Amino acid sequence: MATVLDRPAQAGPAAPVVRAISFADVKAALLAGVEDFNRAPVIGALLGAVYAFGGIFLVSCVFALDLSYLAYPLLAGSVLIGPFVAAGIYGVSREIEEGRQPTLQGVMSTIFDQRQRELGWMAFVTIFAFIIWMYQVRLLLALFLGYSSFGTLSEFLHVVFTTPDGLTFLAVGHLVGAALALGLFSITVVSFPLLMDRDIDVVTAMITSVQAVIASPGPMIAWGLIVVALLAAGSVPCFLGLIVVLPVLGHATWHLYRKAIVPAA
User: Fold this and answer.
1) CA–CA separation, 46 and 41 (whole Å)
2) Is a pLDDT exceeding 90 seen at residue 5?
């Protein structure tokens, strides 16, 4: 009589295989992102507008609460949750890749279907990192500038740029922020599109993302700097540039994922 131990174990999903990418791949992914946006500009602009007006809302809130000095770290931290916001964009690129014409209804259905998969846990990781980001800002403010309140943003900037404590806060804050951003970038750079594309667990996705960064540190870091630079540039004209920048980066991230991860068998 066969026992449980005699039965063959059911094989789970194969672990993703990472391959190295080059700077040329980064450039090609960015150009492909622009092309995808041109093929579905309305959907991209609508999803980008959600991110843009979300930034306007957050900044309006901190000014309304007389916390204007938190505007800069809040905006800088919003970059951390960009990959989650762009989840719908990955679906658009996948539709284009498979030869279908993307529709807003189809994209929203794809996003809604993710509630039954691991993407929600990845979103939790990014939101948690954003909370930690804001707490470390408050902690550094208390350590270097005391518990003084700042009535206006100009007053805060004057203290930060003209006093030794303010300059120290600025330097340490950027170093700590860069370390946190690098860590989160490493675990999310391909994990979001990977979770959209395959039915795997969130831990495997994060490990695969870190492996992709280790396999191609130069191109991946260059991609991270491009993302930060473009998001910063898009935020300057009242965040309206993000209506185009976010979808382009989302499409490009999908194509970078395709280059960094070997397709499933």
Assistant:
1) 8
2) no
18: β partners: 261
Q: Give CA–CA dist 230/160, Å, rounded.
A: 25
- Residue-level pLDDT at 8: 44
49 with 243: CB under 8 angstroms?
yes
CA angle 184, 188, 194 (to 5 degrees): 170
- Which residue type is seen at 163? T
Tell me the whole-structure pTM to 2 decimals.
0.81
Kindly tell me the sign of the dihedral angle through the C-alpha atoms of 98, 101, 107, 110: negative
Question: DSSP states of 131-164 as a string?
Answer: HHHHHHHHHHHHHHHTT---SSHHHHHHHHHHSH
User: How many other β-carbons are positioned within 10 Å of the β-carbon of residue 165?
Assistant: 13
Question: What is each CA distance from 177 to 115, 140, 149, 208, in whole angstroms?
Answer: 30, 11, 22, 23
pLDDT in tens, 114-161: 666 677 778 788 888 888 887 888 888 888 887 566 666 677 778 888
User: What residues form DSSP beta bridges with 261?
Assistant: 18
Residue 202 above 80 pLDDT? yes
CA dihedral 164, 168, 171, 173 (to 10 degrees): -130
**Cβ neighbour number for residue 106 with a 10 Å cutoff:** 15
Which stretch of DSSP H or E encloses residue 20?
none
